[in-house]
Every structure is written in structure tokens, then in C-alpha cells.
Amino acid sequence: MSSGGRISAVMVSYRTGPVLFDSIRSVLSDPDIHELVLVNHDNPTNVTVRLDTMAAAEPRLTVIHTGANLGFGKGCNIGARAAAGDYILLLNPDTLIARGAARIMVTTAQGLPPVSIVGARILNTDGSEQRGGRRGGLTLMSALLSFTGLARILPGVRDFHREEEPLPAGPVEAPSVSGAAMLMTRETYRALNGFDERYFLHVEDIDICERARRMGGKIVFEPRAAFVHVGSTSSANILLVEWYKAKGLNLFFRTYSGPVGQLVLVVAGPLMTMALLGRAVLIRASARALQARSRLRARVRLAQRRRNSGN
Predict the structure, then answer these.
(1) Is 49 within the bounds of a domain?
(2) Do 175 and 269 fall into the same domain?
(3) What's the farthest any 2 CA atoms get from each other in the chain?
(4) Which positions carry the signal peptide feature in this UniProt record (predicted)?
């Protein structure tokens, strides 16, 4: 891979919330990062104004306004084309980077063959490893076993998600890594034609890893480069998010499954879509129940304070 050292971070933001500015500050506080290109997909006006103000005061920050939500993959491609670095570091807009993590990823990348990708260790805010940072190969069977939870209880079956496995001491190959913190050279990004823009949200990172491996590159998980992914900050409708995930999975399987897989997908595809949407409904119902419980408790506490103040 390239021996150049300039790193361009690329973010795509759609209604990310206040953590966006924490993420921007964490990137700009790392002197190893040459620039941050932020693609603004229809954030509220007050956020857009604040981004422009920051960019005017910070020469390392470039903001590109698209005026609409064009999807994660297309946004990354827009940002990568505008970037000037030797390396492209793709980051979620709710990701907090530790100083030095990007340089570790570059050092690892320099020892890899062309068309290779390096992924980072993604952490929850409590320091635990987040689901999705290191993953196996995505097939209809691995997806079924993972979504149903059978992979965690059946003997001899390795889960598609690998975060429960022992953490390696150094970089190791993995079939796919997370687009929340993913690094490759500019040459690799161009050779792969960036993300496949048919994926609007989700699965585009698995797809680009699959294409890189088929072109002879390596996908490497770098555990020494850690990023905190806050998550669940976007105001996007969870049902819509899960719908796009289902569409992405179906597209991936249509692209890479053999003839038998295509036949199975006729039945499995709709079932997978219904399962993901059903999970979204349960998550939303649970969140609303928690909110209602919190409001009830707040009213009870207020009533108690009023009674106590009247005594």
C-alpha cells in the first residue's frame, strides 16, 4: 500500500445530534489527521450554520452541503473525492477518535498488499467492544444463525459477529470490518470505485470488504486502534433504518449468492425483512414504554414534592 502519510477523515452526517460536534472536535484534536471532510446531508439549519462557522475558523475542516439525504455510501464517495490525503479514514459522525489511533491504522495498512482495508476496534461508551467491529463472512446461513441467536448456542458454530471472542494482541485478518471506522489508501478507494451507492444505509461496508477480498486485498482488524461509537443519536425513523438494512442484505445476497442461494432468497428474503421490521417495532415500543415510565415517575416525584411543601 501507499507509503504516503497524510490522513483525510471523511464523515457523513444526517440529523446526527449534538454528538456530531464532539466527534468533529475529537478528529481535529488529532495532529495526525490532515483534514476532515464532512458531508452534510440535510441537517437542521442551526446545525448547518454552526458547521459553516466552524469551517470558516478551522482550515482543516471542509463542509460539503448536499441539501438532501443521499445515503451513507454516496455521501462517503462525495467526501472521499474531495479529500486530499494519501489515506481515507471513514468515520461515523457519532464516533470519538483517540489520539494516535489513525496513525496506528496507517502503520498497519503500510504492510498490506494493494486494495486492502483496515478496521478499528469499536467501543461502546462503557468501554466494552461494540457489535459489528469485527465480523465473519456474510452468507444466508451466517445471517440466519446470527439473527436468530442460534450461533451463540449451537456447538461448533462461529457467530458472524466476533466481539465476544478473545481480543487479539495485534492486527488480524477478518472477512469484514465496520464502516464506522475504516481506513484505506486513496488508490484502494479508487480501485474499488468507493462504496456501491445502491446501498443507501447498512451493508455497504460488508460489500466493499467483499469486493476488496475478491480483488486480492486483505481485510484487517486492528485492535490497538480504538474508537468510541456513541450510537443511537440520529433522529432517523428506526423502521426506515431497518428497512434500508433489509434492502441492503437482500441486495448483498442477490449479488454474491450462487444459484442455490438465489432460490433460498425467494423465501428467506421476505422473512428476513419482516424479522428486521418486527425487531424495529419492538425496539420502538420498548423505547416509548421507557419514556412513558420516566414521565410517570417525574409526575409522581412532582406530586410528592408538592404534598411535602404543603405540609
Answers:
(1) yes
(2) no
(3) 77
(4) none
Q: What backbone phi and psi angles, to 5 degrees, belong to 111?
A: -95, 10
Task: Tell me which long-range contacts 281-289 makes (C-beta under 8 A, separation of at least 24).
Answer: 281/239, 283/238, 284/238, 284/239
Whole-angstrom distance, CA of residue 260 vs CA of residue 119: 31
Closest among 147, 158, 137 to 268, alpha carbons compared:
147
Percent of the chain with pLDDT over 70: 85
Q: Which amino acid is at 310?
A: G
CA dihedral 225, 96, 229, 119 (to 10 degrees): -30
Question: Do residues 192 and 215 make contact, with C-beta atoms less than 8 angstroms apart?
Answer: yes
Q: CA–CA separation, 38 vs 302, rounded Å?
A: 43
Report yes or no on 251 lying in a domain. Answer: yes
Q: Does one domain contain both 61 and 170? A: yes
Q: How long a stretch of residues is the chain?
A: 311
Q: Provide the domain limits for residue 268.
A: 238-310
DSSP letter at 161? B
102-139 pLDDT tens trace: 999 999 999 999 999 999 999 999 999 998 899 999 88
